[in-house]
Amino acid sequence: MKLWNKYHTPATVDQTLSLLAQYNGAARIVAGGTDLLVDAHADEREPFEALIDITGIKGLCHITADDSRVTIGAGVTHTQIVQNQVLRSRATCLVESCGVVGGPQVRNVATLGGNVVHALPAGDGTVSLVALDAIAEVIQKGERQHIPIVEMYRGPGVSLLVPGRDFLLSLHFNLCGKNEASAFKRIMRPQGVALPILGCAVWVRLDETLEEYEAVRVCIAPVGPTPRRITEVEDSLVGQPVNEESLAQAIAVAQKAVSLRTSRYRATAAYRQEMVAVLLRRTLPLAIERARSGEAVPEGIGV
After folding, report:
1. Sign (positive or negative) of CA dihedral 295, 250, 120, 52
2. pTM (whole model) above 0.85
3. pLDDT, tens digit, for every residue of 270-298?
4. CATH of 4-53, one of 3.40.109, 3.30.43, 1.10.260, 1.10.150
């Protein structure tokens, strides 16, 4: 089955923009292609007029960090993220979420940028990016823009970016600093179905005594057509002591705040409601432990 007519490997962003204009919406950006090409096979559609491979553009396949902030190029693979020592210690939830995507062969080629552009509300990498309050750097309508990660989604599989005209350049977020840490966990069907029942990423900052929540970000997905922070839970924890009572209250707030439905591919609404509690009990104490110790070792990631 033929999937494309022409294949381009531009060396610069400007060359990419020129190609997108030349094909007037009929071309598609590709990096790993693990979503785009699978969908093209499944749809049995007419071949794309052209694919534009961005992996040769300088910087788009690199991770760069300074003392406080990191930039992840749109062509960076999940394996690169899992192996990056800065991310392992200071953006641990992202390493944990990228480390459970597919198998090793998929992680070696699939990109975090593709995960974002594919716009599924339960994308593992997306859940962590929301908790990390990431910013997407994009070319939209020919202009470079910076967009909060939650604004990149318009519905299940529907991105803010127009296919064949816009494209993602990179993702940016602050690294965890003093008294800060993150964690990610997900629950899957035991049969190994690719869709997670639920995923949860949290980021916390404790006060100087390490006994009180100073700031919190929580993302649980999928709980709607687009990923979002569960601000009700965040508000319930800020200023509260780190103890069993505040955790139990946060769980009660979360179960009331999220709207879950029964899914033939995931689980019943009642079961998923219970899993909200399970995930928060796994992620919040883990992030707190990491914030207190200043050390983080990612858990559950693939090899």
Report:
1. negative
2. yes
3. 998 999 999 999 999 999 999 999 999 99
4. 3.30.43
